[in-house]
Predict the structure.
Amino acid sequence: MLNLPFLLVQIFSILLIIWALVSKHLQKLPEKNLPHGAFLVTHGPYEIIRHPIYAGLLLIMSAFVQGYSSFSRFLVFVFLLIAVLLKLTYDERILEEHSKEFKEHKQKTHKLIPYLF
């Protein structure tokens, strides 16, 4: 059975991820101090939240779990949430150690949820 509200959330999430990927591709600020392959993106959805791709992924999965609930799906979502939060914490710690610009960007944005977290 089609669950329209959750489908709309998933479509929004996919569009957020695409917007983030396009922004990431168009604007990479190379920094000398960052580890090889790392760069800072501050435009597009990155102006509001620091991790829009992870936010979109979590939104898609939360809509899937809510729209088609089961204990096993909920459990997988909890593990995914924990893994993403650990990865975000690690990434931000590395960026903070190496980038003054990231520290400034961090003060202007939220981690995953605009205006909340």
In short: The two ends are 33 Å apart (CA to CA). The chain has four helices and no strands.
